[in-house]
């Protein structure tokens, strides 16, 4: 479709546009002529220069606001993912820093932007694999393919929602555009540049006044347009860097090691028994000997599941699956108590925990074993950059034995602490918070007096529920990391399948 | 009686000495003397096992006072002197037992230089006692003869709802406790478990005392459940100091103040005994007088009465001179008293110590009667003061016999 045929087909519209626009467009040259004749050119030029000077800070302000707006508008995008670990969050803050200092791309030069994207990927790779020689290559082919798959899905979704008519646009159309551009593109561009340059020269010679006016307005229009599109470009640039960073983190953190379906399978393997379809959150009870861990298991389960008594009763790890109405499905893991010695056995279980329920007796002021154990757990947790670790909730047991010892008439208002018992419970919570260096709000007072109703278990369940989302994320990380152990088996499996292909190929040949 | 006159003169001088230096020096000397002869009770127990409650119950000091009264001793331990001016007992508490790497060596060697008793405190509901057993075993490995008493505390933790302490106190400390029907089954199990922990301990078997020291608000009367048995066992293990302290606590009905001040009197008695028996730079009457003056000053402060030269001469008139001599004759101490100024001879050491002890205790008891009347603005009847003096001498002599037998003083 050529220009001439367009004119031919739409001549009434063209005439209409000309008829309406011409009187107004003619005002520009007429005004310049008037200025020339009236001798006001200098006054006009000075005023224009002054306004131009005034526009400079305005332009800067507009730029700054555009950047800030982009930052705010993309605030949701800048939020780190809930599922990320500390190390990945650090990588993310590096990505944010890059996004902050990246200038909006220009339409005519896209290379700096691509360099920035590459830089982002490399920064993330370096951060997540500091020890690796070539950090950027720390991913496997399946991971890359999964990332590609995911990006393709995202691109499709975005395209469908943002580009009108994309469903009807055929590849052949795009190929035609490409072919035209290949065939005539370079010639057309050169022609335009040469032609336009010649026209500007001719114009200057013929009518210097008009030339000045047009050159000025051309420059201003170009400048303003670039300024007004600045916001859009800042927006797009930031979005690109952040998206690249996010994808890079997913890739280099090994999060793409398993697809969603594979993750589901791993979760099933983690379940206590093969028959159980979903792995419950693992709630590991840690505490001193006779702090009341087993009693707490029985109370939470609403039935006697494990032995209790005045002497140490739990000598090995035992797991109890709870599926109670109105309660989250959890697996309680009862482990032997922390002794006076420096055994680290509990850490093995703590590493497999999605939520740690630290059981502390209110009537045992010798809390050094708890503190020591908790510090060991914290030291281990802070060394885990690749995964998040279980949140800690404290169950403060034996509160019924606090002073006055022979009085027990729950409920107690621990916050107001009007009665002596409530005051004693409050004091015990504060003492444990200081001794174990924990905020008081993770400490829930409970009691399991023999032969009577257990106290405050609802509050304990509520506290557990608050950390349940976090616990599930811990579980995801745990399964993902644990999956590395299975990798060899997977490799063998894949080799086996590849071997079958080859064999069948040979047989067919 | 020239000797006694000299003693009173010296006490008078010391009591009303110009300037504080003499008084301060006397007090410091008396304190050091008492400390060197005081019984050290080495408390071994986890935080919250009930050590402070036991010290409070034995001494009659409130728990808060006991808690603040501890002073650092070695790097890992602290001391509580009872009474502080002239300790009869020194409670040694190990700080941070159960923290990482407690080495009992320095505390053990410190205790080697003192007469002592190991008082192990275990909360009966806490079966994990490794941190307590470790220093105990170490001490007994080196000194199998060191006496050990194990207090098992917090009995009510195993009572079912509504149960109170069985009265009369049913425990004996022996294996029959484990079949005692009036105790809940879980409690008996826990008691037996803790006793078993000490099965392999070198030396004689420790004595076990189940106790439960609560506060009245807890609702487990009596608040010092089992204290009589604890007294009995402690007196068997270390007669002198605990008999004196026990007497101070139990004979307090007549004059509550007197019960409170008695540890000071006995502490000063021990210091006076030390003045005769331990080679410290105090010579004869001067040293004894210094201790007595310190005691009289301490008693006056507790009774909130000030000594003046005139009240002191009235008091010494009531008990001093011929009156005192008469009582001394009657109680057959005349021969002993002759030896008081003969200081430094090893042969006379124990006797001097005994005499110094008895006289100091007697004067202290008499002073209590005198000061109690003074406090009400009255003059004490001489008869009553002298009776107190005589009783004090008798009691002091009984104690002093024990004192003479204490092998530590032969060293």
Biggest β-sheet strands, sense, barrel of chain B: 7 strands, mixed
Strand order in the sheet with the most strands of chain B: 2-3-4-1-5-6-7
The structure class of chain B reads alpha/beta
Identify the strand order in the major beta sheet of chain A. Answer: 2-3-1-4-5-6
Total domain units of chain B: 2
Shape of chain A: elongated
Low-confidence stretches of chain A: 272-277, 485-492, 495-509
What is the CATH domain class of the largest domain in chain B?
Answer: Alpha Beta
Work out the strand percent of chain B.
5-15%
Determine the N-to-C terminus distance of chain A: 53 Å
Radius of gyration of chain B: 23 Å
CATH superfamily of the largest domain in chain B: P-loop containing nucleotide triphosphate hydrolases
Binned, the helix content of chain B reads 40-55%
CATH architecture verdict of the largest domain in chain B:
3-Layer(aba) Sandwich
Whole-angstrom Rg of chain A: 36 Å
Tell me roughly what share of residues is in helical segments of chain A.
Answer: 55-70%
Structural class of chain A: alpha/beta
How many beta-strand segments of chain A?
6
Total domain count of chain A: 3
Give an overview of the whole structure:
The complex is a heterodimer of chains A (509) and B (411). Chain A is of the alpha/beta class and 509 residues long. Chain A has three domains: 1-39, no CATH class; 40-257, no CATH class; 277-486, 3-Layer(aba) Sandwich (Rossmann fold). Chain A has 18 helices and six strands. Chain A has helices spanning 3-9, 11-25, 27-38, 41-73, 75-78, 86-101, 111-128, 141-162, 171-206, 208-252, 260-270, 293-301, 345-351, 368-382, 420-436, 457-466, 468-483, 487-508, and strands spanning 281-287, 318-322, 330-334, 355-361, 392-397, 443-445. Chain A has a six-stranded mixed beta sheet, with helices on both faces. In chain A, helix 15 links the parallel strand 5 (392-397) and strand 6 (443-445). In chain A, helix 13 (345-351) packs across helix 14 (368-382). Chain A is elongated and about 110 Å long. In chain A, 26% of the residues are buried. The model of chain A is unreliable at 272-277, 485-492 and 495-509 (pLDDT under 50). Chain B is of the alpha/beta class and 411 residues long. Chain B folds into two domains: 2-33 and 254-410, no CATH class; 39-113 and 116-237, Rossmann fold. Chain B is 55% helix and 10% strand. Chain B contains 16 helices and nine strands. Chain B has helices at residues 2-15, 20-37, 51-59, 63-69, 105-112, 130-142, 185-197, 227-237, 239-250, 256-277, 284-303, 309-319, 321-330, 334-338, 349-375, 382-405, and strands at 39-45, 71-72, 77-82, 89-94, 116-123, 148-153, 207-210, 212-213, 224-225. Chain B has a seven-stranded mixed beta sheet with strand order 2-3-4-1-5-6-7, with helices on both faces. Mean pLDDT of chain B is 77; it is low at 277-283, 334-351 and 404-411. Classes of the chains: A alpha/beta (509), B alpha/beta (411). Chain A binds chain B through residues 288-290, 309-312, 337, 339-342, 363-369, 372, 401, 403-408, 420, 449-452, and chain B through 46-49, 96-100, 123, 125-131, 154, 156-158, 160-161, 164, 186-187, 189-190, 193, 214-215, 217-220.
